[in-house]
Amino acid sequence: MLAFLLTLMLLLGIVIVLAYAERKVAAFMQDRMGPTEAGPYGSLQSVLDVLKLLQKEDIVPAAADKKLFKLAPILIFAAVFAGFAVIPFTPDLIPAGIGIGVFYLLAIISLDVVGLLMAGWGSNNKYAMLGAMRSVAQIVSYEIPAGLAILSVVMICQSLDFQEISYQQGILLNRFPGLEFEKNWLFGIEALGINTTNIGGITTWNIFRAPLLLVAFVIYFIASLAESNRAPFDIPEAESELVAGFHVEYSGFRFAILFLAEYSMMVLVSLVAVILFLGSWNTPLPNLTALKLANWTTGTVGELSGVLWGGFWLLSKTFVLLFLQLQIRWTYPRLRVDQLMYLCWKVLTPVALGIVLLAGIWRLLMV
Amino acid sequence: MLFYIFAAVAVLSGAYMVLTRNLLYAGFSLLLTLLSIAAIYVLLFADFVAVTQLMVYVGGVLVLILFGIMLSSRVHDKSVMSENTNVGWGISISLLTLIGLSYTIWQAGFSSLPWIQQADTNVLGGQKSTVHLIGIKLMTDFVLPFEIASLLLLIALMGAAYIATDKEKV
């Protein structure tokens, strides 16, 4: 129960910052000022936006399918929020440490799709219906390259547990029960003879333990943009064609929930990318001879310093990825449907399949 | 206690799915049924099966069903309704199935089976999940069915791709 409340609070905080950052980043990239009135540099803008949304009338269209229309936002947000249950925030803080966390996450996110269909159908609106159809088609097809990229990480790490994968990517490796005698080698290959177990930092991140995971990371990142309906994959909510996509009929609190779910999805996919590829809550600074940078910036597990450092690194890496998402939105034009499907089925999926095969071979080199 | 809650939800939503005339509502109540069955799997320490069920049925089959319903024509701007046909045959076949299943379960005498009596002990023991065991079993004892299933899926995939291609010659 406590984990539920804490995660919800954290998520609300991140989403409010993210909504503000989105407007500011957009403004600066277009040589504008963005919000300036509310608070210093307009920093209270998104808080006020939320307050405004909460005060608005909750409109349910007369011709809508009322039960489905009302249920859909709850289902969408619940599906995304359930994904946060298996995310490890620090070395010893994880809401639910189940052994098949990665698999669970992939499955529970697919519930989101059902919610989208429900919202699109319940609205009884052609734009909403088209938006939901496009959105679902896109999410379902991009789950494949994303899943294959995640699978290659799972093959390298030999684990479906997010916390175990996290421990493998840093100097705390031997602190995880069951991994006491494991060793990290540079690029994962023992024959090179460079033991990085105590060097830690960036040298033990998954993209360094098996450099081909860098390609998998790029694939996952592109696919995750499509899964959270972000530009350049935002044809489900293309303003010029569909007004706003599946949530065109929603207003007030229900719209706020949908908005929150959309941004939570962005945060969730970034968190997963950080945990699987970019070293999770581990510090990026390695131990270099006398400079024990990794030890200094990890803190002690089980004490406040460990929690603070872990949370700090995880969140700051996540924010870097989120910033990248925002930047890409204002850099690339929207893809057409055929380009979207071409990219998914003829580029990303074959490459991801190749990566899975290579990851298997790399794993054989690692033992 | 938890089991009874989830079982009740599964049965009620299953009954609703069968009884409702609105196909779309039936699809969404199938979601509820699948979720509560997944919860029952979790209570039985079968976490991998539970998640696989969510992945395959909710993420794949259910979405496909919903797409099918939504893409088929809306009749007079109303949701797609199902109709009653073959009432006599349907009732008799379902009754026969019920009798057959009840008889089998009765004959099995499950309360005396050894693995039911051991069910109180912690099945997982020191392990965190059943994945390792399932993987080892699939690659040793059950490798032939596993490979045949994968071959079958491949054939289905190729068949689907063949049906979906434009046939210029026709």
Task: Give a brief description.
The complex is a heterodimer of chains A (367) and B (170). By secondary structure, chain A is mostly helical.
Description of the structure:
The complex is a heterodimer of chains A (367) and B (170). With 367 residues, chain A is mainly alpha-helical. The two termini of chain A are 41 Å apart. Chain A is built from 13 helices and no strands. The radius of gyration of chain A is 21 Å and the shape is globular. Chain A has helices at 2-29, 45-55, 66-83, 101-122, 126-157, 162-168, 206-209, 213-227, 239-242, 252-277, 293-296, 304-329, 337-366. Chain A has one domain. Chain A is 62% helix and 0% strand. Chain B has 170 residues and is mainly α. In chain B, helix 1 packs antiparallel against helix 2 (23-43). Chain B starts with a helix and ends in a 6-residue tail after the last helix. The mean pLDDT of chain B is 80. Classes of the chains: A mainly alpha (367), B mainly alpha (170). The A-B interface holds A 65, 68, 98-100, 103-104, 106-108, 110-111, 113-114, 117-118, 121, 129, 133, 136, 140, 143, 160-161 and B 24, 28, 31, 47-48, 51-52, 54-55, 58-60, 62-63, 66-67, 70, 79, 127-129, 131.
Question: Main attributes?
Answer:
heterodimer, A: mainly alpha, globular, B: 170 residues, mainly alpha, Four Helix Bundle (Hemerythrin (Met), subunit A), 2 domains, membrane (chain B), Nuo/plastoQ_OxRdtase_6_NuoJ (chain B)
